[in-house]
Every structure is written in structure tokens, then in C-alpha cells.
Design goal:
Elements: E1 2-7, H1 14-25, E2 28-31, H2 32-42, H3 45-54, H4 62-75, E3 81-85, H5 91-103, E4 110-115, H6 118-132, H7 140-163, E5 167-171, H8 176-187
Parallel strand pairs: 1-3, 1-4, 2-3, 4-5
The protein binds adenosine-5'-diphosphate.
Adenosine-5'-diphosphate (ADP) binds next to helix 2 and helix 3.
Length: 190
């Protein structure tokens, strides 16, 4: 099985590249941001709780995220594997994920980290904000918060996988297909 962590700051292109990976390798997409937005749309208790954090660009508490991901992994019939998009976002989430997978005799194949300069990220998020309808894409201070949270809390997750010898960095600027080809070369080595 292929279990890939697709990593990078907000606006790095994780969602876009995930779609292409899912198609090529027949993987199950597990995007915590998408799952939260689904709950939000359905007005569930989990959605209401998550909204407070998401709208401000802050992280939803670990135990909430981990519980949701664990349920999703366990309810998914074994396929070719998972692509984790926007998760894990803290070191606590990363080690919880390792435990959940270990209990199922699974493991992470590798992390692919998309590298994109900050000015390009901000530009992409502002552009996306024009059509995404996402509150967190439309306000300069919320964009700043998300990037700061990424640097403070999420970047250490790359170190976690580096320590396991599983980190590969990919330059995240170029055409979607160029970037995807570079990702696919890495995945083909797993
Ligand atoms: P982006 O890729 O632009 O950061 P996402 O859709 O991945 O957007 O996430 C949107 C918001 O959902 C985050 O800012 C955060 O509030 C919440 N969220 C998503 N995934 C997680 C997670 N793994 N841990 C905590 N909060 C999360």
C-alpha cells in the first residue's frame, strides 16, 4: 500500500496535486480541511466546533482532528492506500497517525513537501479567495495567521518524517504537470 503525506504551507498546491495522485495511483483522499468543511456545511457539532478555529486560521485541537482521521481510516475499505492532505499538522498528530496505522499493520511510505516562497503563497490564496468562498482566504490578517501557524506548529512535522528518513522536498513552483511529474518520480520509488 502507498500511504503518502502531502505536506506544505497553505496555498502550496496540496489539493491540486492530491487530485492527480489519486487518479494515477488510485488512492483514497483524506483531507482534514475538506472533512471539516463538509461537517461545517452539514451543520454537525464537529463542524460548529471546527468553524471557530478555521475562520480565524487557527488549528482545530489535536484530539478532535485525530479522532476524525482515525474514524475515516477505519471506515475505509483497504484500497491502494491514502493520501494525507493537510494532516498531520502538528507533531502530536504525526505520532498519533503512526500509532493508528501501526495498529492496522500499515505505515507511511513517505512525505512529499511542496516548497513555495511566501509571496507566491499569499498571491495564490488571495486569488483562490475570489472564488472559494472561504472566509480564511479573504482576509489578509487570516492569511498571515495561517502562515504563522504553519511556521510555528506545522513545519516541525517535516522534521519528524526527516528523522524517519521519509522526507522528500519538491519545488512547488512551475506548471501543475511539471510539479506532478516530479512528485510521481518520488512516489514510483516507494
Ligand atoms: P490550507 O491548505 O489552505 O491550509 P485546509 O483546507 O487544509 O487549508 O485547512 C483549512 C483550515 O482547517 C485550517 O486553517 C485549520 O483551521 C483547519 N484544519 C485543517 N486540517 C487541520 C489539522 N490537521 N489540524 C488542525 N486544524 C486543521
Amino acid at each position: 500500500m502507498l500511504n503518502i503525506v502531502l505536506f506544505g504551507p497553505p496555498g502550496a498546491g496540496k489539493g491540486t496535486q492530491s487530485e492527480k495522485l489519486i487518479e494515477k495511483y488510485n488512492l483514497t483522499h483524506l483531507s482534514t480541511g475538506d472533512l471539516f468543511r463538509k461537517h461545517l456545511g452539514e451543520g454537525t457539532d464537529l463542524g460548529k466546533l471546527a468553524r471557530k478555529y478555521m475562520d480565524e486560521g487557527r488549528l482545530v485541537p489535536d484530539e478532535v482532528v485525530i479522532g476524525m482521521v482515525e474514524d475515516k481510516i477505519k471506515e475505509t475499505k483497504s484500497g491502494n492506500g491514502f493520501i494525507f492532505d493537510g494532516f498531520p499538522r502538528t507533531v502530536a498528530q504525526a505520532s498519533a497517525l503512526d500509532k493508528v496505522l501501526e495498529d492496522l499493520s500499515l505505515k507511511i511510505s513517505g512525505m512529499i513537501a511542496l516548497d513555495v516562497p511566501e509571496d507566491i503563497l499569499k498571491e495564490r490564496i488571495r486569488e483562490r479567495g475570489k472564488t472559494s468562498g472561504r472566509v480564511d482566504d479573504q482576509d489578509e490578517s487570516k492569511i498571515e495567521t495561517r502562515i504563522k501557524v504553519y511556521l510555528d506548529e506545522t513545519l516541525p512535522v517535516a522534521g519528524y518524517y526527516k528523522g524517519q528518513g521519509k522526507l522528500t522536498k519538491i519545488h512547488g513552483v512551475g506548471t501543475i504537470d511539471e510539479i506532478f511529474d516530479n512528485i510521481a518520480k518520488v512516489v514510483d520509488q516507494y
